[in-house]
Specification:
- By secondary structure, the chain is α+β, with helices and mostly antiparallel strands.
- The chain has a domain at 64-163: Roll (Nucleotide Exchange Factor Grpe, Chain A, domain 2).
- 47% of the residues lie in helices and 19% in strands.
- It has helices at residues 23-60, 64-83, 87-106, and strands at residues 109-112, 124-130, 140-145, 147-150, 153-156, 158-163.
- It has a three-stranded antiparallel β-sheet. A three-stranded mixed β-sheet has the order 2-6-3, with no helix packed on it.
- A hairpin with a 2-residue loop joins strand 4 and strand 5 (153-156).
- Helix 2 (64-83) packs antiparallel against helix 3.
- The longest helix is centred in the N-terminal third of the chain and has 38 residues, at 23-60.
- It starts with 22 loop residues before the first helix and ends with a strand.
């Protein structure tokens, strides 16, 4: 029985001092080494492709965490607009929010999740449901937080209330 060496390749049978290795023994050892070399090459190619994909993803979405940090600021500005009674304060905050949204859109950050949209579990997180017979099933009736896409990646799901009959 052949023994395996450290690298998993079968070692040729040990021969006694008076018996020489045959051509067949050498061919088997060579085939085994060639097979091992092909497997290592394929494994390395797979590793290289995985790493290239990871690096590409990191570079493509390099600003994701930075953008996520600022979305909470944008949410607070929106809450301020809703809570202030003073029209001048609301107008000023609306201007800041609109400028902020324009800057985000220039960086390919797009908001989604509006009242009247159809519910999509890939984009929206339903926090609760309502039962309004005047509104179609699976229609968003309230938005707690807008969702955002960065390029083609969803970086935050919209938090919504969905209408359900019955």
């Amino acid at each position: 029985m052949n023994k395996k060496s450290k690298n998993g390749v079968e070692a040729p049978k040990k021969t006694s001092a008076n018996k020489k290795l045959t051509k067949k023994d050498l061919e088997l050892a060579l085939a085994s080494f060639e097979d091992k070399q092909l497997r290592l090459k394929a494994e390395f190619d797979n590793f290289r492709k995985r790493k290239e994909a990871e690096v590409s993803s990191l570079l493509r979405y390099e600003g994701k965490n930075f953008i996520l940090d600022f979305l909470s600021v944008l949410d607070n500005i929106s809450r301020g607009i809703e809570s202030y009674k003073d029209e001048e304060s609301k107008k000023a905050l609306s201007m800041v929010r609109n400028d902020f949204l324009k800057k985000l859109e220039s960086k390919q950050v797009i908001p989604f999740g509006k009242i009247g949209d159809s519910f999509d579990p890939e984009l929206h997180e339903a926090l609760t449901t309502s039962n309004d017979p005047k509104v179609d099933d699976d229609t968003i009736v309230e938005v707690y937080e807008s969702g955002y896409k960065y390029k083609d990646l969803i970086i935050r799901h919209a938090k919504v209330v969905v209408n359900k009959h019955g």
